[in-house]
Specification:
Largest sheet: 7 strands, mixed
Radius of gyration: 19 Å
CATH topology: Rossmann fold
Strand order of the largest sheet: 6-5-4-7-8-11-10
CATH architecture: 3-Layer(aba) Sandwich
CATH superfamily: Vaccinia Virus protein VP39
CATH class: Alpha Beta
Structural class: alpha/beta
Number of helices: 9
Shape: globular
Length: 284
């Protein structure tokens, strides 16, 4: 194999999964030197791929419904942090179906909201924000907040993109990055083969742990870096995977798991670095 690690330049890697759920000819590799996980080829992703990627085959309305819980969680996180600010200039990079920005506009009508999203069928709702297909269309360099929710893993050159986003931030601005945790308990603790077959995907070019995500942020020029762990899916989801080898336990078995149990489980996973999601907060 001739694949060179994007972060450390090492050629010392091993295959951790043969094929992805959609591309049997592309393997998932782990750099033995720095721990970065990446696909053996990016040739299937061209510059126009995400304009009509087919990642979301449902209607936009159904897509919004499927992301509602995550969007509400993110909305509450941002609303709590910025509730005392009358005006905030914010960019959501990789804004998806725009549900999060719509929620923020309804709560904070004075905020200046920008969406960078190449998906052609997604259009701003009721003129609540300005939508761009690329970062090149944004001339401002004084954003108070830039967010990337489950976007960095799709980028072929995340350091370059984070560097560009850093230049768009105000002196006291902040970039929030949410991405899957490669140390997810279903893989590294429970060894759930069915989950591995499902979770490795041709659209996820990289997967990060806390160290490699920090490395990317540092190489992009960020000085203040904080990375936390969040568990998006409850205990029922994990038990369903382990019992049935399928997703969906968070809806099928949710009645069996109370909030206290889910909170305790998520807290325990976070304490050992095994949550399913990383959230990084990066400042200049």
């Amino acid at each position: 194999m001739t694949n060179k690690c994007y972060l450390c330049g090492s050629h010392n890697h091993r295959v951790i999964h043969h094929g992805t759920r959609d591309l049997v000819h592309i393997d998932v590799l782990l750099c033995k030197n720095c721990g970065l996980v990446f696909l053996s080829s990016f040739d299937h992703i061209n510059k126009n791929f995400y304009k009509n990627s087919g990642m979301h085959t449902e209607t936009v309305e159904e897509w919004i419904k499927s992301t509602e819980l995550d969007d509400q969680r993110r909305f509450m996180m941002l609303a709590n942090q910025y509730c005392e600010r009358n005006s905030v200039r914010m960019m959501d990079f990789g804004a998806g179906n725009l549900n999060l920005l719509t929620k923020l506009h309804n709560r904070f009508p004075n905020w200046d909201l920008w969406a960078v999203e190449p998906e052609e069928r997604v259009q701003p709702i009721n003129g609540t924000m300005l939508k761009c297909e690329s970062l090149d269309q944004i001339v401002f360099s004084d954003f108070d907040l830039i967010t990337m929710f489950h976007t960095i893993e799709h980028l072929s050159d995340p350091i370059e993109v984070l560097s560009l986003l850093r230049k768009k931030l105000d002196t006291n601005g902040k970039l929030i990055v949410e991405t899957p945790n490669v140390d997810d308990a279903l893989i590294t603790m429970y060894g759930c083969k069915a989950f591995e077959d499902y979770t490795y995907w041709g659209c996820h070019l990289y997967l990060f742990d806390q160290d490699t995500l920090r490395d990317v942020a540092e190489r992009a020029g960020f000085k203040s870096i904080r990375i936390n762990q969040v568990q998006r899916y409850p205990l029922a989801n994990h038990l369903y995977w382990l019992s049935n080898g399928k997703p969906g336990g968070h809806t099928k078995w949710l009645h069996m798991m109370g909030n206290k149990l889910n909170s305790a489980y998520a807290e325990q996973l976070a304490s050992i670095g095994k949550c399913d999601t990383l959230i990084g907060e990066f400042s200049k």
